[in-house]
Write a structure and sequence with these properties.
Keywords: Membrane, Signal, Transmembrane, Transmembrane helix. It is a single-pass type I membrane protein. It is found in: Rough endoplasmic reticulum membrane. About 50% of the residues lie in helices and about 15% in strands. The protein is an alpha+beta fold. Strands 1, 2, 3, 4, 5, 6, 7, 8, 9, 10 and 11 form an 11-stranded antiparallel beta sheet that branches. The longest helix has about 45 residues. About 20% of the residues are buried.
């Protein structure tokens, strides 16, 4: 109990001394300012209450007098003035220490709003970028329509001029079905793209079929047309003739212009392997602009007879290349892509012809006749036994070299797999917390390395006499 009473006595004593030493000099006037605010706050409430009490007293819907209505409006205006946001500019206590001599203005600050004129008419010069883009799109669309029509007319003109010659040499000429460009209801070109047309011909001796590919300039592409002024390129006709297995002896031959001969010797697999040497056309009675890549000199002399040399001399500007091969496998494979199989080969004759500005006129018919003549020539061409034996040996060596390369590639792939497996095993052993296991694995690895370094020796047993 004493412990409880002692804090109570101390609290009472502290309260008494606090009251005794309280500042008695404070007067009621010190809090007059706060009382004034209380009165102001209470006054409008009483006025509103009186107004509310007076309204029910009216009877017979008699409107209030005009003086009273004006009084209420002035009160509302006064209330709005009290909430004015610029009232603090008129309060002298807000500017204590400011020079009294400075002129004071009772007017409120004015905010000037500049009137921006509204543009009624749009200014077309502000849309110059959109105008350029619209003109470019319109030009591209117009070039597409004109270029597509021009390429189609070239394909139709080819059919009108040269389809009778194809009909005389083949039983079936042209394509049928949807998206076919033809004259009337006859078979014609199949449209592969806006600048590419194909046509298959079959039913002739000395070949299994012939595929014509008409590769024209991309006239439907405005960008390609503009680039054509810098690097012009002609329309081309690619002829691919599928030769039969027994239609020719094995040989590889190519007659091409210089730039095409350089490119083909680097890109084509059969030419890079069997025809590494290029010879000028002068040595074979051809123009100097042509080069000859040949595997067998006997086959070259038999193929390039007087008629072929005369046609090539007369139309050498339109002949890009003539490629005859029994080991054609397309472009060379990349060095990184190691294959374990021999590439599939076929017997073909490839001819590329550059067309004139009108898409192939009178100059194309003699070249087509030359193609048919070369087909018959290949069928009749027979090599001597010595030349045929050399060609067969050369193909056998190439096949053996390819097999050795494929075997080396397989060994390298197997070594890479073993090395990868060994790395995974090492990581697994090091991840474990067993030092004895790690030590055994290191000893095993050391023995394997020593065994690889030890030279292999043959052990011979000699019988005693």
């Amino acid at each position: 109990m004493r412990l409880v009473l002692l804090p109570i006595v101390l609290i009472l004593c502290s309260a008494y001394f606090t009251h005794a030493y309280e500042d008695t000099t404070l007067e009621d006037d010190d809090f007059a300012e706060f009382e004034q605010f209380d009165v102001d706050d209470d006054t409008p409430v009483d006025d509103f209450c009186e107004d509310d009490n007076e309204e029910p007293v009216q009877k017979n819907n008699i409107p209030p007098p005009k003086d009273q209505f004006e009084t209420n409006i002035e009160d509302e205006l006064l209330v709005e003035d009290e909430d004015n946001e610029f009232e603090h500019f008129q309060d002298p206590e807000e500017f204590e220490g400011f020079q009294d001599s400075a002129p004071r203005s009772s007017e409120q600050p004015k905010i000037t709003i500049t009137k921006v004129p509204i543009t009624v008419r749009p200014r077309w010069d502000a849309y110059w970028l959109e105008g350029i883009l619209c003109c470019a799109l319109a030009a591209y669309a117009l070039a597409y329509a004109i270029g597509r029509a021009k390429n189609t007319s070239i394909a139709i003109n080819f059919l009108k001029l040269h389809k009778p010659l194809l009909d005389d040499n083949f039983t079936l000429v042209g394509e049928t079905g949807a998206d076919v460009v033809s004259v009337g209801d006859d078979p014609g070109w199949r449209r592969e793209a806006e600048h590419c047309f194909t046509m298959w011909c079959s039913g002739r001796v000395c070949c299994e079929g012939m595929l014509l590919t008409l590769k024209l300039i991309k006239r439907q592409d405005l960008v390609n047309v503009l680039l054509g002024f810098v690097r012009p390129s002609p329309d081309t006709l690619l002829i691919r003739v599928e030769l039969g297995k027994d239609d020719s002896d094995p040989f590889v031959l190519c007659v091409a212009q210089k730039k095409f001969a350089t490119r083909l010797s680097k890109e084509m697999q059969d030419l890079s392997v069997f025809c590494p040497e290029r010879r000028a056309g002068d040595k074979h009675g051809l123009p100097s602009t042509l080069n000859v890549l040949s595997e067998c000199a006997e086959a070259t002399g038999a193929f390039l007879d007087a008629r072929v040399c005369g046609a090539l001399t007369q139309y050498h500007k339109h002949v890009q290349y003539i490629h005859v091969s029994d080991r054609y496998s397309g472009p060379k494979q990349m060095e990184d892509a190691a294959t374990t199989k021999l590439p599939e080969t076929e017997r073909v004759m490839l001819v590329s012809l550059a067309l004139g500005p009108d898409g192939g006129g009178d100059e194309l018919r003699p070249l087509l006749l030359l193609v048919f003549y070369m087909l018959d020539k290949i069928k009749r061409l027979r090599l001597s036994k010595e030349a045929l034996l050399k060609c067969e040996k050369r193909r056998q060596k190439v096949a053996e070299a390819w097999l050795r390369g494929a075997h080396a590639a397989r060994q390298e792939q197997a070594a890479q797999r073993r090395e990868e497996k060994r790395k995974q095993e090492k990581e697994r052993i090091l991840a474990e917390d067993d030092p004895e296991k790690q030590r055994r694995w290191e000893l095993k690895e050391q023995k394997r390395q020593q065994k690889r370094k030890t030279p292999k020796m043959k052990q011979l047993k000699v019988k005693a006499l």
